[in-house]
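User: I'm curious whether this sequence folds into something compact or stays loose and floppy. Could you predict its structure so I can see for myself?
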Amino acid sequence: MKPEIHPEYREVVFQDLSSDLMFKTRSTVKTQETIKWEDGNEYPLVKVEVSSKSHPFYTGKHKIMDSGGRVDRFKQRYGKGKK
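Assistant: Here's the prediction. I'll summarize afterward.
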């Protein structure tokens, strides 16, 4: 690898603003904020609006919008039992 062309890969804390979820992982994202983590060390902090704790798909609150019966027409056309 060429030196000095890759971004710094380090431990970062992500905080979901719409829930209580905070997790530490590794990333190249740049941020000015820091936070003191459970282990006593200080890490860069990245605030996000959506994570797996707050996204409707992962929380089970996801709704499928069927506009104009497209799903029913698809099932009727390509559904089981049709050969």
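Summary: The CA atoms of residues 9 and 79 lie 48 Å apart. Strands lie at 10-16, 22-27, 34-36, 42-48.
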